[in-house]
Write a structure and sequence with these properties.
The complex is a heterodimer of chains A (about 260) and B (about 60).
Chain A (H helix, E strand, L loop, with lengths): L2 H7 L2 E3 L2 E3 L3 E4 L9 H8 L3 E8 L18 E4 L7 H16 L2 E4 L12 H13 L3 E6 L3 H10 L5 E2 L13 H10 L5 E3 L5 H10 L3 E4 L1 H4 L4 H20 L22
Parallel strand pairs in A: 3-4, 3-10, 4-5, 6-7, 7-8, 9-10
Antiparallel strand pairs in A: 1-2
Chain B lengths: L1 E4 L2 E4 L5 H7 L8 E4 L2 E3 L14 E9 L2
Parallel strand pairs in B: 1-5
Antiparallel strand pairs in B: 1-2, 3-4, 3-5
The chains are: A alpha/beta (about 260), B mainly beta (about 60).
Amino acid sequence: MTETMQAADDALLLGGVRFSSRLFTGTGKFASRDLIAPMLAASGSELITVALRRVDPKAGAQDILRYIPASARVLPNTSGARTAEEAVRIARIAREAGCGEFIKIEVISDMKYLLPDNAETLRATEILAKEGFIVLPYMMPDITVTKQFHDAGAAAVMPLGSPIGSNRGLEMKAMIKRIIEASRLPVVVDAGIGKPSQAAEAMELGADAVLVNTAIATSSDPVMAGKAFALAVQAGRLARLAQLAGEKEYAEASSPLTGFLRS
Amino acid sequence: MQITLNGESVSTAALSLREMIIEQGFEPDTVIAEVNFELIKRERWQQHLLREGDTVELLSFVGGG
């Protein structure tokens, strides 16, 4: 099997839906919303996050959905929720408003670090999974909680690499590695991925997908950045499937150590 | 009558939800409306009559990660 065929067959299943791209993206922070569609086309991303907010009539029409082509699936998030109840309310509104069954649970109670509240996120997951949602919880990397998300009916877990919007990459690398080992659910590394090399690193570790928003949206060329992240995710995924050999303490010659031409 | 609109007390002369949305300067094609924590579909806005003290949220999907 060629690498191309392998990649084509290597779809990710989430909640019964097939994704051929393992790069998920977000709609936040774009200088122009008109960049979202070409970014999606360049990156091949098939799942993109949106948020729900009160409308400010002075700010003009704000509906981001009209900037997302029908070929991409919308993943509403529950950002702004501080409790499970608030997250559940946002999820129900998003579904009623026609956004489908996917929901990214994001419950954050601290505005400085923007770290997820795993206990409230787990409570919201239990409620929404029972209501038929395809629940993707954004979480603090924790193996015990990963198992609890599985039992609560989540479709995946989304551990953070580093704080939202920080571009610091896989600060949580050691824990993410253990979660990938132990999780029976797909693992999507979300938040903090600032460079394609960090996305590739997450995929090499065995992540099933990554979610990148800030790094793409705040670059000078989000369309090109989207493409760069897509290539990195593909490279990292293929490297994982190829089962690269481990590190060695000392050098090991790549050329034969016999038959030297000696004078 | 007084209602609470997006967390603020607002005085409205509108009878229906749809009239209030237009009266208050919102773009009806792009908002999602919740009255007393219940989502009201756009096709029901004209027949949905507001009552004194109603809590109305007008929401929209925005960019987010």
